[in-house]
Amino acid sequence: MAHTKAGGSTALGRDSRPQYLGVKLHDGARAKVGSIIIRQRGTKWHPGKNVRRGKDDTIFSLINGVVKFTKKHLKKYDGSLKQATIVNVHPVK
């Protein structure tokens, strides 16, 4: 006879994968064509020159260059202004 009760599986014990969001290339870093600059949900950072936003809101580079972050006031739908961070890639000379 068994001395302990059979240990069944538990509903706990699993963990979801982290999303690995955030800035991947900081200000002044060199970016290649197609390299991911920022992984985000929503538009905390907005795309600028030589940068596009993917369908999952990832910001990536269109050219080889240097990453630059700038601040700009953008008009919201209700007419108020909000300060947004714009991500640009400037070509290297």
From TrEMBL:
Keywords: Ribonucleoprotein, Ribosomal protein. The keyword Oxidoreductase does not apply. InterPro entries: Ribosomal_bL27, Ribosomal_bL27_CS. The keyword Disulfide bond does not apply. GO terms for molecular function: structural constituent of ribosome. It holds the Pfam family Ribosomal_L27. GO terms for cellular component: ribonucleoprotein complex; ribosome. One of its GO terms (biological process) is translation. Belongs to the bacterial ribosomal protein bL27 family. This is Large ribosomal subunit protein bL27. It comes from Candidatus Falkowbacteria bacterium CG10_big_fil_rev_8_21_14_0_10_44_15.
